[in-house]
Fold this sequence. Notes:
With 575 residues, this protein is an alpha/beta fold.
Amino acid sequence: MSTSTTNTVDAVDAIVVGAGFAGMYMLHCLRELGLSARVIEAGSGVGGTWYWNRYPGARCDVESMQYSYSFSDKLDQDWEWSEKYSPQPEILAYANHVADRYDLRRDIQFNTRVTEATFNEAANRWIVATDQGDRIDAQFCIMAVGCLSAANRPPFDGLDDFQGPVHHTGEWPHDDVDFTGLDVAVIGTGSSAIQAIPIIAAQAKSLTVFQRTPSYTVPAWNEKMDPEYERDIKEDYPAFRAKARARPTGFYFPFNMESALDATPAEREHQYEEAWARGGLPFLGSYGDLLFETDANDTIADFARTKIRAVVDDPATADLLCPDNVFGCKRLCVDTNYYQTYNQPHVTLVDVSENPIERFTTTGVVTNGIDYKVDTAVFATGFAAMTGSFDKIKITGRDGLTLAEKWRAGPRTYLGLSTVGFPNLFMITGPGSPSVLANMIPSIEQHVDWMVDCMGHMRDVGAATIEPTLTYEDDWVKHVNEVAQVSLRSTCSSWYVGANIPGRPRVFMPYIGGFPIYVNKCNEVMTNNLEGFILKGAAKTTTAPRTRWTERWRVPLDMDIISPAAIAAKRVPVV
Ligand code: NA7
């Protein structure tokens, strides 16, 4: 579909905002359900996060065999990943393959940004407006806008006067950016920076990294895909998927339920060494209580700091790189040669924790009175997570209430799927769902499957709108907050709580209770005739929803790991 410049109102059953993995799968399912749909996408291609984050070294931190759609065994069998952890171009190629394979592009309008979505109460329909002048009328408005899609660009003084190019990792140019022979600044040391820094350092004449808070990072030990491993999984991919879905993280890895504090120092050392040698996010599964007990967490944090000091030659730089906060409180990073990079003579680490970046000059970055001369700057400064992508659109529900107003003190949803006052507005991996704390693609599929069954049910019973009740929404928000308090994760200033952006309310946004518990809850709500939701206009309210899509989420759970006893004993792996 080409970009429209008309002002006529088009009508479809569902409008989907975003053509990342969420919007693509939603479109595929809507078609199967027999609903008409249009997807609006700001980029010129599909892939969402993997379309925008093209920075050097961008790579998924969930293993390739687990980071893909699971809805088609044929797709699972046909696609081949080349590495243990997929690089961004390969994930984007996969997204394009899916778009071609299911002929998705004909219902996606690219290069178009949704600016407003307004619920018309008289008609029970949404009117969606775009920056290309479109006005689209739809029964359902489905937000597939991504959790990390609104780039945070700190408004440093003097930035407009800086003569060199400035690139944000999350809005990276499509043309190659060549740092050869240049003096480069990288601002930020989160996941994106940690992936990009070793690659940029290999090209640049000099690299100055401005660090406000050091991150913990575990080596990926990335390698070519082991054909035997791939063959084993593909022999029974559905069983492997089921095993992964039964894990709190939505992906499978070895997890030790024991307490770190019950082990002797020698046992712990052995356990951490083994887990470090396996690398990646599963390192956090070394013990069951690492994210619950500060004393337990101290043991893994000490181990990680020892590893940093063993690699980094200069003790002062090593000290700066050693975090002093809870291990895994902020999102754990996964790297290739990050710490080694600081042993190169042309790489400098500048601490801006106490003396923030004051300003940009035409030729540099000033902090603590020192002007660091650079030709170009990379902002690896993260995102307004979870709600930032909603904030970019003026969303108006019943009684003229905007979503931004409703969420002023923090997002409020029922199951992260929908919110009171905004009938027929669905959110894929919205705040209040496991989303970023679980494997994103299964999280997306589970949400979409639930929504498609829900929309199918509405059609079956002739309902015009669906909306949660305030009581159920309040109870869910309370539960999300209570569970978050159990974990040490709620204690630090991460993007999980919105604290990385000045002025945002501090609320732990994702649901930390674990993917299987959450999925069970969604299944239960569906089985109980959409408990907690009000359907209006339905002719036959007693008909139970058919569960054509959600059925595949009724998997046996790994009760050792997610049982109430495990939760009470604070032994739940969260990544
Ligand atoms: P992150 O993890 O939010 O990292 C952003 C980094 O930028 C972090 O080190 C911030 O320091 C730093 N930052 C932000 N603003 C400033 C200012 N004003 N001055 C100096 N430094 C600043 O984003 P990423 O893109 O790396 O990763 C996001 C997720 O993508 C990641 O967790 C994975 O799930 C994939 P701070 O820590 O706030 O002090």
